[in-house]
UniProtKB/TrEMBL annotation:
This is Leucine-rich repeat 2. Residues 32-148 form the F-box/LRR-repeat protein 15/At3g58940/PEG3-like LRR domain. Residues 299-339 form the FBD domain. It comes from the Eukaryota. Pfam families: FBD (PF08387), LRR_At5g56370 (PF24758). The lineage of its organism: Eukaryota, Viridiplantae, Streptophyta, Embryophyta, Tracheophyta. Coiled coil: none annotated.
Length: 344
């Protein structure tokens, strides 16, 4: 007869939607310890308990689960572990939403303990206070970072807003990076994949006559000037446009493809940035509003850009001024080979 230990089955996948009337920490940890010991490959823990999230803490056994491949966590807490006890050799995908970290180095330790990690998503908790999202990985291919901080502009939310944590990236094989709804203080790129696609939607809360805050914008622009393929939001373009009125923009000589979203914005925030993209080959512009033809005023695009663009896509409403915008590019882009017009 097989022993009880031999009858223990291996778990391929385990999902826990934790929604109880009263949280018992010891029982919660006991259940997840059992899951970890059974060689789980895919683990999802969604905490729906309406209590202080600090009570729903992940067990230490999770830090050394040798079989774990995919990890998804929502509204739980990672304690600060001993670095020697952290080893997740098989984790390839990690999704962390509203997760609180007990110390600045916890997330960094977690990432560095995953030597084959390829896909990482972090949606920060608006009431967490760690200083920096530091991503150092020799295997990471896709990184998504989002913030819930901007949601706390609602006065009914019971805490004050502050900037999001600093961002520091050292991932030489990264192929895709997205940073969205993020209020930046500092953004440092040590390394990134040479052909990485980058999606940027960040804002800065500062006064333009403050030298310290001006330096923040300058450092951010230097960081993104190394990218080759960029999708950029209207909010970020507005920041860059305002900065360009007080300081010169750095050259974006590496940028070959730009997707510019001007949703809830206007054409005028784009030309100053385009003027620094002297090697731009592909341009996609999305506008959700164009005035009638008698009202539209097109700020000119520098000739150095017009002579390099060979592919153009305009996603705009169907108004008479749409053709005025298209005609402007058609007449002035001397290298243009392909133009596509579409509605929204």
């Amino acid at each position: 007869m097989k022993s009880h230990k031999e009858l223990d089955f291996k778990l391929k996948s385990f999902k826990l939607v934790y929604d109880v009337n009263e949280h018992f920490h010891d029982e919660f940890v006991w259940r997840l310890n059992k899951v970890a010991k059974r060689g789980v490959c895919e683990l999802t823990v969604l905490n729906m308990v309406d209590v202080d999230e600090a009570l729903v803490r992940m067990p230490l056994s999770l830090y050394s689960c040798a079989t774990l491949v995919n990890l998804t966590l929502y509204c739980v807490v990672f304690d600060h572990p001993e670095s020697k006890s952290v080893s997740l050799p098989c984790v390839k995908s990690m999704y962390l939403e509203g997760v609180k970290f007990d110390g600045d180095s916890v997330l960094e330790t977690l990432i560095s303990s995953c030597p084959v990690l390829e896909d990482l998503t972090v949606i920060t908790h608006p009431n967490d206070y760690f200083e920096v999202v530091r991503v150092r990985s020799q295997s990471l291919k896709s990184f998504r970072l989002e913030s819930q901080l901007l949601e706390c502009d609602d006065p009914d939310v019971g805490f004050e807003c502050d900037d999001d944590p600093d961002v520091e990236i050292d991932a030489p094989y990264l192929e895709y990076m997205s940073i969205r709804d993020y209020q930046l203080r500092s953004f440092i790129i040590h390394s990134i994949g040479p052909s990485a696609e980058v999606n940027i939607d960040v804002v800065f809360d500062f006064e333009y006559d403050d030298p310290v805050e001006i330096t923040k914008i300058h450092n951010f622009l230097i960081a993104i000037s190394t990218f080759h393929k960029v999708t950029i939001s209207a909010r970020t373009l507005a920041v860059i446009h305002s900065y360009s009125e007080v300081e010169p923009l750095p050259p974006f000589s590496n940028l070959s493809r730009l997707d510019a979203s001007l949703v809830e914005s206007s054409w005028e925030v784009l030309p100053a940035f385009l003027g620094c993209c002297m090697n731009l080959h592909s341009l996609v512009v999305e506008l959700d509003h164009l005035p009638e033809i008698e009202e539209i005023r097109l700020s000119p695009v520098p000739q150095c850009v017009l002579s390099s663009i060979n592919s153009l896509q305009l996603k705009t409403p169907s108004t008479p001024s749409k053709m005025k915008l298209a005609t402007y590019f058609w007449k002035n882009c001397t290298a243009l080979k392909k133009m596509h017009l579409s509605g929204r």
